[in-house]
Amino acid sequence: MPKIRLTSAAVDRFPPPPSGQMEYYDTHLPAFGVRVSYSGAKAWFVMTRVDRRLTRVTLGRYPAVSLAEARELARATATHARAGRDPRRIRADERLENERVRATTFAATSDLFLDRHVARNLRPSTAREYKRILKGTDTANWGHRPIASLTKEDVVTVLKRIHDRGSPAPSNRALAYLSKFFGWCVEEDLLAANPAGRVRPLSSLTSRERVLNSDELRTLWLALNDLSGLFGPLLKVLLLSGQRRSEVAGMRWEEVEGLGTDEAVWKLPRARTKNGQSHLVPLTPVVQALLIELPRTGPLVFSGTNATAASGFSKAKRQLDERIDLIRREGGQGPLPDWTLHDLRRTMVTTMNEHLGIAPHVVEAVVNHVSGPAKRGVAGVYNRATYLQDRRSALREWAAYVITDEPLTSRS
Q1: Which of 56, 75, 316, 361 could pair with 231 in a Cys bridge, judged by C-beta atoms 3.0 to 4.6 Å apart?
Q2: pTM to 2 decimal places
């Protein structure tokens, strides 16, 4: 048991023994030392009495624990032992507490939430939105923090960051997702209170209120002409058909009939619709032209892999917004107010009703709604009319409204 005044340089020079381990004691702090094993591993220790028995307490490995840190741990261990407290039990409790804290960080807890709640109960598109908020850059600096340390002020700071970069509706959605996440943590006894529970949305605008006007639609169409890859035609079909994003992205060639004729339709099976009702979508000449130009490399109309439906909408939306902003700057206009792809469906329904004079029951039939007066209750049992020709005319009027060559400022 050599005795030496331990220094970092001296510890670095200690060679591993041929077998077993060698202990070096510190002359500066008696009973404190370093143990070197034949493998070259070096660990700090201190000898002290616990329950009147001389006990070696390991303090950590070198160099993960420095010499100065090890000396402080040795002194604290000796103090606990003199006070009748078992330093081994104290260190074990500290390790358990550290593990508990790591398990309840925002990063760990959000992983648990995504796995136990989101993945099991929500649609993939919604799951992606939750992951974008909980695992994205806006909440990245929360990752290492204990979930219980997050406050209302932290939530508001994140929402302001999103809002101030020109995204009021996403800021409101982020609040909804965070509130749901923290609420789940309360239900799981991981939190005592929801820090987002009393936070108010920073904007009165919600995505469910957004309707693009005619100038905005015209700019959008111009921008879509410049969008490369499959997303140009995909988003054009989304805009002109008024169907849901997942339905358009998953379109299959076998669902398209009569392409190139006046009677062309897209037959959506009930398994792919939100309300479980099969649906016929008349294909206007513009939509047919878009589809005819696409290569048929697999069963899916829009696919980058020939095996799975199109994905990457967030990236495509950012590229589209950049192109829209450029077009508006060239026309002396400011950025387009925040909008989402789902707003296109609402815009079509609103425009058909308020500007194109399409009968409400026809509009509902276009978007496969079954909640309107023409399809509700007893009336719905007897009213099985598809209004197919009326819907075809409505969609043609909508396409003309979107693609008109009139100047951007000439329409209301």
Answers
A1: 316
A2: 0.52
